[in-house]
Amino acid sequence: MLYNYGSINLDHVYRVSHLVRPGETLASHEHRVGLGGKGANQSLALAKAGGQVQHWGCLNAQDGWARELLQDAGVDVAGVKQVPGPSGQAIIQVDDSAENAILLFPGANHHFKAEDIAELMQACSAGDWLLLQNECSVLADSIQLAHQRGVQIAFNPAPMSDDVKRLPLHLVDLLFVNRGEAAWLAECEDDASAETLLDALAQQLPTTALVLTLGAEGAWYQHGDQRHFQPASSVKAVDTTAAGDTFIGYYLAAMQEQASVAECLALASTAAALGVQRQGAATSVPARHEVDSALSSGQHQIR
User: Fold this and answer.
1) In this predicted model, what pLDDT tens digit does every residue of 214-266 receive, in sequence order?
2) CA dist., res. 253 & res. 91, Å (int)
3) In the predicted model, what is the mean pLDDT of the chain?
4) CA atoms within 13 A on the CB side of 184
5) What is the percent of the chain with per-residue pLDDT over 90, rounded to a whole number?
6) Overall average pLDDT of the 47-58 stretch
7) Rounded distance between C-alpha atoms, residue 295 and residue 273, angstroms
8) How far apart are the C-alpha atoms of 261 and 227, rounded to whole Å?
9) b/e string for 194-210 if b means 16 or more Cβ within 10 A?
10) Fewer Cβ close by (within 10 Å): the C or N end of the chain?
11) Which residue out of 11, 63, 76, 245 is catalytically annotated?
């Protein structure tokens, strides 16, 4: 079983001609509110991919519709608590080039204490997986508690911050990072090559499997001496907001099916490519039959 201790946000998405500049007032030509948060997006993608996932997180009681959306998608929401105080919020700008800028307010995502995680973890068994991102509280405690129970840990350190470097990352079994996150962790230049980033992270975290996503440049897997590259599909992006979350959810669902690394990368890459052609975060995550169809039609290939 996979348990996802992750953020649940209310996404306020604004379509703009360009990302707003300091001191500028900019009119938006579209606005919508929907389910978001890296944690919720990844749980949703996992469930849509056919995976088994129980979500742990917090929402304000008046936002129960977000919990229902996760449940309707096939996510086990037994660990989603309704609490006092506002839910997490995200203000998202998406420009005409599909680039985005996001302002986060953590709200209820910081409600859980270490004792809450310890209680939820009583349901976990050795060999289960715990998925984490960097939008919730008590991450260090969560990693330590999972390791003590023999639970395998997958971590997506987004949004990246200096706090991530103080976490016990050596206990993480599978790390998902994009170029910027990898460069931050490895203390490399942002334009460093994929090979440079992989080499540096292998030195820092020699026992951790790494998935490095590079958008249009494809994705890499590395563990020990094993390295595998998956080229990206050539598509016209409309909104990249949940591309990484879609990739992670589909990758982990493929892992649950005992798929090979190459198959995990191809499925995840295809799902992300389909997702960026649609607007929204949770609403952009494709269904499994769409991804399988794209793969079988030869639009996307396992390399």
Assistant:
1) 998 999 999 998 999 999 888 888 888 789 999 999 999 999 999 999 999 99
2) 29
3) 94
4) 15
5) 83
6) 98
7) 11
8) 10
9) beebbebbbeebeebbb
10) C
11) 245
In the structure encoding, which two tokens stand for residue 60, read together?
């304000």
Is the separation of the CB atoms in 133 and 156 below 8 Å?
yes
Q: Which amino acid is at 194?
A: A
Tens-digit pLDDT profile for residues 121-158: 999 999 999 999 999 999 999 999 999 999 999 999 99
Q: What is the 3-state secondary structure (H, E, C) of 178-241?
A: EHHHHHHHHCCCCCCCHHHHHHHHHHHCCCCEEEEECHHHCEEEEECCEEEEECCCCCCCCCCC
Per DSSP, the three-state class of 27 is coil
- Distant-in-sequence, close-in-space partners of 182: CB < 8 Å, separation ≥ 6: 188, 197, 201, 212
Return the structure tokens found at 2: 């996979």
Residue with tokens 């409309």: 238
- Radius of gyration over every alpha carbon of the chain, rounded to an integer in angstroms: 18
Tell me, rounded to whole angstroms, the distance of Cα 219 from its chain centroid: 15
Using DSSP bridges, classify how beta strands 219-223 and 226-230 pair: parallel, antiparallel or unpaired.
Answer: antiparallel
Q: How far apart are the first and last CA of the chain?
A: 28
Is 245 annotated in the active site? Answer: yes
Single-letter code of the amino acid located at 245: D
